[in-house]
Design brief:
The protein is of the alpha+beta class and 156 residues long. 28% of the residues lie in helices and 24% in strands. The C terminus is likely disordered.
């Protein structure tokens, strides 16, 4: 299986988050993942959270990468990997948002939606990555993005 990788350069501007979401949705649709599939919504939400974190918490440019055919087993079919690399050496710091706080839920969302996630040093900065398996989930399992408000997400 061939691993396909594409990337988008992100400027240090919060307006770039919307551009990254649109790019990701277009890319997913072009790869055969329907816009009405839960997987597409999950991946776009993950992209939104990771790019927001990079832009807001580092103030540095970033690179968004999406890979298909990636996974813990080289070339594992059905896995989509999202990576956001930035030039800040500061490691990610998950927080526990409380009450009406408007921030602090990004990595918690990623943890709940992705099958795996982590981070690694990359050059002088870091890369935060996550993987979502495309394999069908059992019908009895609730959709993780059925209600983003349950995770404290704000509408786009």
């Amino acid at each position: 299986m061939q691993v396909l990788q594409v990337q988008l350069e992100i400027g240090p501007d919060p307006a770039e988050v919307g551009r990254a979401r649109s790019w990701a949705r277009s890319l997913l649709t072009g790869s055969g993942i329907g816009d009405d599939e839960t997987l597409a919504d999950t991946l776009v939400l993950i992209v939104s959270e990771l790019v927001t974190n990079a832009v807001v918490h580092t103030g540095c440019p970033a690179v968004l990468r999406m890979l298909s055919g990636a996974g813990p087993v080289a070339g594992k079919a059905g896995t989509v990997r999202v990576e956001v690399a930035d030039t800040s050496a500061r490691p990610p710091s998950p927080r526990q948002a409380t009450g009406e706080e408007t921030g602090g839920r990004g990595l918690e969302l990623v943890d709940g939606l992705a099958d795996r996630w982590g981070w690694q040093r990359e050059g002088g900065g870091k890369s935060i990555w996550c993987e979502v398996d495309r394999e069908d989930k059992p019908a009895t399992e609730p959709s993780p993005v059925a209600s983003p408000a349950a995770f404290g997400a704000r509408p786009w």
